[in-house]
Amino acid sequence: MPVSLLMNFLTYTGVVAAAVSGVIAACRKDMDIVGACAVAFITALGGGTLRDLLLGQKPVFWVVDQSFAIVTFIVAVVTFYSSRFQTFSARSILVPDALGLGMFSVLGASYGLQAHTSLFVASLMGVVTGVFGGVLRDIICNEIPYVFARSAQLYATCSFAGAWVYILLVRGFGIAQTIASLFAILVVFLMRILAVKYNLRLPDPKPNRA
Question: With bands split at pLDDT 50, 70 and 90, how would you rate the model's confidence at 89?
Answer without folding.
Answer: low
